[in-house]
Specification:
This protein folds into two domains: 120 residues, Beta Barrel (Elongation Factor Tu (Ef-tu), domain 3), CATH 2.40.30; 145 residues, Nucleotide-binding domain of ferredoxin-NADP reductase (FNR) module (Rossmann fold, 3-Layer(aba) Sandwich), CATH 3.40.50.80. 22% of the residues lie in helices and 34% in strands. The chain has six helices and 14 strands. It is globular.
Length: 283
């Protein structure tokens, strides 16, 4: 294995080969989301929920265009370390001229074919750790591709660890049912755990997706307020949040109603974060 190159910040640069790229939203969906599995011979100490920094080809004289992606799954094989990331093909509208442009990193990745190589660095952080005590309650709140690390967590605790005694509650938001990752017609991995007595999943969609109405994530939390609040306040529970930054406003509003005021909720959230019991990865 060759000595890896480094970035300006000193982080080592590794290479990985694409093993598979599978669309996990139906073809009829407006959103293209792919689960991509790579293999590297680098010594990478990455866990589910850790982030890696993808180094896409740069633009305008820059060597790289970097983006962080959460590891949705990981394993070791006879030939190296394998990891999967969940990638949504993104586009953005230029505020100045109103034109639509491709997201650099996401389109680079989604256009790759098996056997292609990428450069990456990391892992960066390890936010969503599995607690040592299997009786701990887990509350996971994800939006869009933010569900990827939670799928890995669920698989870990029920398959690799053999089960979980605490309550495991997953709230997942998406524009429509077609975009409900790992719970749609193209891929329904999470449905495999519905028979686990400690696992429940709750879905939230946009009431008017054609008009870009917000996903009703707050409403889903509010409908289950009694249990959500019980879990938040149960001893050593964990609350894990992943997805777009905008989702935090809906979560705060729902939690503030449970706490009695926004200030009371913010104080509690700060205390939970200080204890390592509230962890969020937002983009």
């Amino acid at each position: 294995m060759q000595t890896p190159a480094t970035q300006p910040d000193g982080a080592a640069i590794h290479t990985a080969k694409l093993l598979s790229s599978v669309r996990i939203t139906p073809e009829s969906s407006r959103e293209e989301v792919r689960q991509m599995t790579f293999e590297t011979d680098a010594d990478v100490a990455a866990e589910v929920g850790s982030c890696i920094r993808i180094l896409a080809p740069g633009q305008y004289g820059n060597r790289y265009h970097t983006r962080l992606y959460s590891i949705a799954d990981r394993d070791r094989s006879a030939t190296g370390f394998r990891f999967s990331v969940c990638v949504r093909r993104c586009f953005y509208i230029d505020d100045f001229n109103g034109e639509k442009y491709e997201g650099v990193a996401s389109n680079y990745l989604c256009n790759l074919r098996p056997e292609a190589s990428i450069e990456f660095s990391g892992p960066v952080g390890y936010p969503f750790a599995v607690p040592a005590d299997p009786k701990v309650d887990l509350l996971m709140i994800g939006m869009g591709t933010g569900i990827a690390p939670f799928r890995g967590l669920v698989r870990t605790i029920y398959e690799k660890l053999g089960g979980w005694k605490g309550r495991v509650r997953l709230f997942h938001g998406a524009k429509t049912g077609l975009e409900m990752l790992y719970l749609n017609d193209a891929n329904s991995d999470l449905a495999s755990y519905f028979d686990q007595p400690t696992f429940k999943a709750f879905h939230a969609v946009s009431p008017r997706p054609a008009f870009d109405a917000p996903v009703a994530l707050g409403e889903a939390l509010a409908k289950n307020a009694a249990e959500v609040w019980e879990i938040v306040n149960s001893p050593d529970s964990r609350v894990y949040v992943a997805g777009a930054t905008q989702m935090l406003e809906a979560i705060d509003k729902a939690m503030a109603a449970m706490a009695g005021s926004l200030q009371a909720w913010r104080t509690l959230r700060q205390n939970l974060a200080a204890q390592g019991r509230w962890v969020e990865v937002l983009y």
